[in-house]
Amino acid sequence: MPRITAKKTAEAGPVVKLLYRIAGRRYGAVPEPMAVTAHHAGLLRANVVHELLVERASKKLPPNVRELAVYRVATRIGCSWCVDFGTMLQKHGGLDIERLTKVDDYATSPAFTHQERLAIAYADAMSADRVTVTDEQVAELEREFGRDGVVELTYQIALENSRARMNSALGIVDQGFTSGDACRVPLP
């Protein structure tokens, strides 16, 4: 149970109720971070708009690269909600979720491509207690993905650090999206 309880639909105003309805249709359940953030309606609206804009803008990287980097951040920070939700998104995106169990061995596992290894290593460097990104690492990422790709990857990793740290601080844990307990949205 989160440290701050989710705002119930009955307590919500019309805008929050609408956002809950849209999220429920999209994901099969209202994501708990959204329902906790709903206690501050202005930040909830800002977050929803931000997330939608980031989703629309993030088209430079291959989805598998982006999603693996984001997943790695969730595992590094220890956000079980982010791992659960991220796994569901990868599954719905048609990505191979079986190999997520091998992410700790990404550097040597044949389950990951060169591009994926670069992105996961970058996620590690950005998610450590102290950022350990090197000039050489960014240069290699730029050769592989271009400048816009590096900016997108950096932004996505930083954003997931923010999400995972907020969820962890508020005690928000997995919601059952991977198991199907929360997600009633059929696979495409």
From TrEMBL:
Q: Which InterPro entries match?
A: AhpD-like, CMD-like
Pfam name, any one: CMD
Q: What Gene Ontology molecular-function terms does this entry list?
A: peroxiredoxin activity
Q: Which residues form the Carboxymuconolactone decarboxylase-like domain?
A: 58-124
What is this protein called in UniProt?
Carboxymuconolactone decarboxylase family protein
| Origin species | Amycolatopsis balhimycina DSM 5908
Q: What is the lineage of its organism?
A: Bacteria, Bacillati, Actinomycetota, Actinomycetes, Pseudonocardiales
